[in-house]
Structures are given as structure tokens and as C-alpha cells.
Amino acid sequence: MPSADPIPDSPRSTPAGDGWEGQYLALMRRVWDHGAVTQDRTGTGTRALFGAEIRCDLAGGAMPLLTTKRVYWKTATREFLWFLTGDTNIRNLCAQGVEIWTDWPLAKYRAETGEAITRAEFSTRIVADGAFAARWGDLGPVYGKQWTDWPAYEPAGEGLYRRRAKGIDQIAAVVHSLKTNPGSRRHIVEGWNVAELDQMALPPCHKTYQFHVADGRLSGLLYQRSADLALGVPFNLWSAALFIRLLAQQCGLEPGELVWMGGDVHLYSNHEALVTEQLRRHPGTPPRLDILRNPDSIYGYTIEDFAVPDYRPQAHIAAPVAV
Question: Angle at Cα 322 formed by Cα 92 and Cα 88, nearest 5°?
Fold first, then answer.
């Protein structure tokens, strides 16, 4: 059991109702109060539970965007659109001011060169110097590579196979299958390529997406093997719901439900201040997402196509990222 005392209940620390944010806060409390103390890859230490679920109805433009703290939805959206490009280098993200992937190549650079460079300096150099970015900014075959260019092979004679120049575009395949065979149980996008895990800066956390059509509505399930509940999951919920919204628009369907499933669901031991503060807060009015344009392809969206006109969150709560 956790070594520290559980966070006491208060009139404002118990979420009202069973909306998705209430589910999220209840899960946060359960992990902090009852999670097993574990050691993790980062050496920080966590409290963790195995197996959890959050459900969110996306009808009417609703989105799983926290109101009990500010979540930078544009940053999450820029990251998701970057995944769709298939890019695996942080240069494009850094140029947009998105630094959520910078710490991994920065740590590698510091370890290999011994240079005590700041993250801001490293990011600036990544953007300014293409050769430097090519050498130090690549993350390996992470999400976008697996989603849009999963390695495929073809016969090369006498029992031999060679890798095709272009792999399998899982995103395009799912769009096609949703349009042509909506009743299929094979609408899946997978990121966990066992053969290439060792080449990735970080193996996929939000690893498996499955989509389901019923009564003209598109629902999606995300299985997340490793779930940083305080910092990562708010981004992952938004991105998974965005994925559903974009697919629904491209396929002429209405948004259905997001079902989020976590494997190892954890809170880092150095996030106590965040957890304490957030559990004191009460959810506000759920925001909605407006998609302002319907491009010809799922690859055609830009950040300017999205608006969240009614997002009034409580203050951002800072916490360290474990790398």
C-alpha cells in the first residue's frame, strides 16, 4: 500500500455524477489511495492499478477535455496531426512550439556528447539546423511510422522476401474499410510492432485502436498499455476522441462513444501536489469541438480547422515529466 496518507475527501473533492470527467477523477483517487507502490523504468516510482475504463459520449460535439485543469488541446491536436504525416523527427513539432517529445532525443544527445545544453537551446538548434535535426531529432519508428508505413514484405524468389518500398497505411485502410464494410470487426490501427520496439525512443503507450459502427454512429476503443494518469492520459483521451471525430466526418458517420481502457494505470510519486489540487476541484461545463472544414482526405486537416469555443478550465497544474 502507499506509504503516504490517502488524500482526504472534501465537499469539493468528490466529483458529481458519472460523466467522463467524474470517472477520470474517481480513477485518480482510486489509483492514489489504493494503487500498489511500484518501481518503474524512470526510477521515479509510481502508484499503479492494473485495468481501468473510462467512457465518453461524443454526441453533439462533446469531447473529453478536462475542466478541472487546463489541458493544451492545440498541442495534443498538433501532435495527432503530426502522427498522421508519418513523420518521426521532432523538427516539425519543435517548429510549432510543441516540445512533448523533445526530452527523449535531448537525453540521448546529452548522454552521448556530454554537452549541458538546455531544452530550449536544443529545440532551437533542431529547428535551425536540418543536419543536426537529422542526426539528433529522430525518434525511430514511433506512432506515425507504424500507422502510415507498417513494414510489408514481398516474395523475392526461392523462399526469400524483400521489404517493400512503401509499407501498409493503416489509416487509409481503416477509412476504406469503414466506408465499404462498416460491419467489420477488423477496423483496427496498431502501433505495437514487436520487431521494431528496440528502435523506438519510446514504445507505443496508446497502442491499439478499434472502431465500431452501429446505427450510423462511429465509436472507438483505445487500449493503452501504460497510462500516466496525471499528464499523459488527458492528452490521450483528447487525441483518441479526435481520431473518432475525423474518421466519422470522413466516412459520413456521426460520432459515437470513446471507450478508453488502461493497462498499467499509474500516478508518479512526485505528482502528489497535482493530485491533491485537482481532486479539490469540481468539473465545469463540458466543452465541445467544432470542426470548421471537411477536407478531401483525413490527411488534409490543419490546426486552423478546429475550435473549442466554450472551454473554460480551471488553472493549469504543473508537474514534472518522467523520462
Answer: 25
- Res. 9 pLDDT band, cuts 50 70 90: low
Residues 284 and 235 in one domain: yes
Q: Which domain holds residue 288?
A: 20-88+165-307
Q: What amino acid is encoded at 182 in this protein?
A: P
- Whether the per-residue pLDDT at 16 is higher than 70: the answer is no
The residue that leads in pLDDT, 313 or 13, is: 313
C-alpha pair distances (Å), 69 with each of 66, 275, 318:
6, 11, 10
Does residue 171 sit in the same domain as residue 34?
A: yes
Cα–Cα separations (whole angstroms), residue 182 to 33, 78, 157, 218, 252: 42, 28, 37, 9, 11
Judge if 192 and 284 occupy the same domain: yes
Residue carrying C-alpha cell 491536436: 77
| Share of the chain residues as helix, strand and coil, in percent rounded to the nearest 5 | 40, 25, 40
Based on the residue annotation, tell me whether 56 is a catalytic residue of this protein. no
As for how many domains the chain has, the answer is 2
Q: Which of 56, 94, 205, 251 is catalytic?
A: 205
Q: What is the pLDDT of residues 157-201, one digit of tens each?
A: 888 888 888 999 999 999 999 999 999 999 999 999 999 999 999
Query: Mean pLDDT throughout 282-311?
Result: 97
Please enumerate in sequence order all residues whose Cβ is within 8 A of that of 45, keeping only pairs 6 or more positions apart, or say none: 37, 38, 39, 268, 269
Q: Supply the pLDDT for residue 321.
A: 74
End position of a domain, from candidates 138, 155, 175 = 138
What is the DSSP code (8-state) at residue 42?
T
Which residue type sits at 157? G
- Say how far apart CA 171 and CA 175 lie, in whole Å: 6
